[in-house]
Amino acid sequence: MSRFKCSSPTMGGAAPPSPVRTPSPAQATLLHPNEPNVSDTSDDEPELRVLTDSSREGSISPLPPKIIDYVPKKVMFVQAGDESTDGDGGVLNPQGPSIIISDAHTTEALLCSRPTQDGSTVEVGQTKMATQRPKSPRPNTTPKKDEPNESFWDKLVEGKHAIDSPGSPMSVDVPPDDYNLDDNEERSMIEPRSYEDPKLKELIAILIEWINDVLAPDRIIVKHIEEDLYDGMVFHKLIERLTNNTLDVQEVTQSETGQRQKLRIVLNAANHILGLGRYGPHKWSVDSIHSKNIVAILHLLVALARNFRAPIKMPENCIISVVIVQKRDGQLNHRIVNEELTGTYDDLGLRCERDAFDTLFDHAPDKLMVVKRSLVTFVNKQLNKINLEIQNMETDFCDGVYLCLLMGLLEGYFVPLHHFFLTPQTFEDKLHNVSQSFELMMDAGLARPKARPEDIVNSDLKSTLRVLYNLFTRYKNTN
Amino acid sequence: MDDIFHWCREGNTVQVRLWLDDTEHDLNQGDDHGFSLLHWAAKEGHLGIVEMLVTRGARINPTNLGDDIPLHLAAAHGFRDVVSLLLRNKADVNFVNEHGNTPLHYACFWAFSAIAEDLVNAGASVSIANKYGDVPLNKCRGAMAKRLHSMAVESGQNLEKIAFKDQSWLGLKTRSRDATLSRHKGINIDELALHSKISLSPSGELWRGKWQGNEIVAKILALRECSPRICRDFNDEFPRLRIFSHPNVLPVVGCCNHPPNLVVITQYLPYGSLFTLLHQDSGVVVDTAQALKFALDIARGMAFIHSLDKLVPNLYLSSKHVMIDDDLTARVSMADAKFSFQERGKLYSPQWFSPEALQKKPKDINVKASDMWSFAVTLWEMATREVPFADLTPMEAGMKIALEGLRVNVPPGISSHISKLIRICMNEDPGKRPSFDMIIPILEKMCTQ
């Protein structure tokens, strides 16, 4: 069981650089800090626990003299550069027309709009908590803009350059004032070592997968969490999909002010949905998201995923270190702050309408046992016919095999063994099984189970009980 | 006129063969006067076409609106080779048309003495009187009557005059099929006059009704929801079930795609399925000879289906999916093939399935060998008159067959030939099971014994 839990967070097809396949015990403890039954792995190998602890401390302890090397913008650029160097940052869906999430660098370069005045950016970016938006590599022509007799040919060459240039932020053209800080100005970025944190990687991969699942009907594919999300378009679509409401926002904006305006509306909507006040400090803001602050973006995504019961299992206790740099009296000072992106959750099913089972769980744990027992009796009465028996209500249903067989027994048909995985190995196999059993239930005229297949596979007891109870009420009188 | 009847009349063998190669064409259909293809070919004496039609499974004794069978026409027009071909294929030599005439009446009247002799040798009675009280001998001229009379005496015929009885109301005849049956694939649901519900099964509701004067059975598919995608798949899939060209295949006549109702229409056959004939009170005695005949029919039907370029997907052979025609011909029912969107993940009759078909996807197994297993179970069923694993629920039976080696038990009481055949067809190794083509000669031999 514990092994399965380790692998569960990877959902869908593309596996994130999963730490699970190469089971490092350090991680196992990180993943299950509160689970007593996993601790035996670390008990066996105490030296590994030491390793874990030391690595944790290591991530916290700062490296003061090196800070100049981490010129904040550069760090951001390195991270951003991964994506933007290998393409234009736009996402083309090979299957058909798709909305192209344009990379700001390219868009700006292509549109060749007047480069934003430095002053205006600062003006908008009043808040000190976030970095300024990293400036895009300007087209070569920026200094030329004042030349009065700009020729047609120059324009052509310029356009060609704009098209051909990879839009790399590492371009030498980045004016030095971009990473100059004004006095008392602050910038924050993830401490580079935190990027290597497997939990963070996992969290990002899972969130991207979730977004892509939700936005599949819109044919939007997100590849990079910062580059694709900062302009608010994906958040806009995401919220529309999740709430089934339309937001009164412009579909596509390419100017920065347009993007900010859009972000403001979208974030207001998000805060409203999340039950947060319009004002007051949030973990995200227009500026922080538009400046591609990954911490803010992740906070918002996690909050949305939790609120909408995303069928994903996010790594728990994902904590990253954030470096905040401030210029004071011409000196760069920095401090490192730990940001908790995810905490621990006791419920996978998260929010839904409260029903008898919630009450049962909260108020009558003794009765819960009775309910469990009678459900087990009911299920075993059927399964015994084919010489099977369940032992453990919590775990025996998560792979969906018994649910499929149960439906066949209750409804009077044989479920061909190629229709499901009799011995499921992966999360996907189990998910397939549970989904198939749900299909069979709906074919039998039962309502679509409130629980999601993912909840069952993740061994959420409450969801499992709900499903079984539905079967029980329908079939308690059949033999 | 460029239709099949015309080609049969003028003897256009090539066109007829091409036409027959299309499975959607029903070779038992009749024209406006109920003349079937065989009627026309026999009337015009095209021996090649007659032979082709007969080998492809055309009915030998269909009647036109005047109650003539092809033998009447061949005898009346003096085609001796056609007459003997029909006789060899069990044409009813004493069949009476609406005037009370047998083929012998016509042979005598038109003075085809060789044909008349052939008919008498094949058992034609010389003493059947027609509506006007004339026996065939009354129609003869010259010495012919005398010779036929003595032949009849020699063969020991009862020479007492058999008076004409109007039997047309008895409905004993098999008319050539209404050609309109195969002409429409998309049928307007409003044209169906459904009058009584026959049964309710997991795949849908069965209704009896009438459509364009034909008795039909309509199956209204049970669907959780009728999405546009399902309608599209339905339209794509049902034409494959319209196989009119083999006598042992019962085609889907047509379908109504009328969301939320999808309806599959077949001919109504009063005997129902082989399963009901065997296990329920049907009034028909299935003795060993009849069982072998059914088995041969099923094998021929399956051999034909297996000979098609594209196999019919999700066609599961079992006694429930074999229908019995009014002349006790067994026909594999195409209406019981499952659509891709139907009963997904549910097998209601795993008792007839081969172990590998219960475990693996159809694309991963030899479907033909798997069908052979199902045939063996059906054969067992006819030999023992028992329902296989009647005491087990489908889930129990399926699990036991698939994983625990549960098999039907061939009791010692049944014919050794049949039990041997069952064992051969139920070989555990799918690769070692015979094909239907291989067992047809065996069954034919067993039928003649």
What does this structure look like?
The complex is a heterodimer of chains A (479) and B (449). Chain A is mostly helical and 479 residues long. Helix content of chain A is 48%, strand content 5%. Chain A has 22 helices and 3 strands. Chain A has helices at residues 2-7, 25-31, 39-44, 46-60, 72-85, 104-111, 118-124, 152-164, 192-195, 198-214, 225-229, 233-243, 256-273, 286-290, 294-307, 356-363, 365-383, 393-396, 401-411, 427-443, 453-457, 461-475, and strands spanning 186-190, 319-328, 331-340. Chain A has a 3-stranded antiparallel sheet with strand order 1-2-3. In chain A, a hairpin with a 2-residue loop joins strand 2 and strand 3 (331-340). In chain A, helix 2 (25-31) packs across helix 4 and helix 19 runs parallel beside helix 20. Chain B is an alpha/beta fold and 449 residues long. In chain B, the strands form 4 sheets. Chain B has a 5-stranded antiparallel sheet with strand order 5-6-7-10-9, covered by helices on one side. In chain B, helix 14 runs antiparallel to helix 19 (436-448). Chain B is globular and about 75 Å long. Chain B starts with a helix and ends with a helix. The A-B interface holds A 385-386, 404-405, 408-409, 411-420, 436, 439-440, 442-443 and B 202, 224, 343-348, 350, 357-361, 364, 393-399, 402.
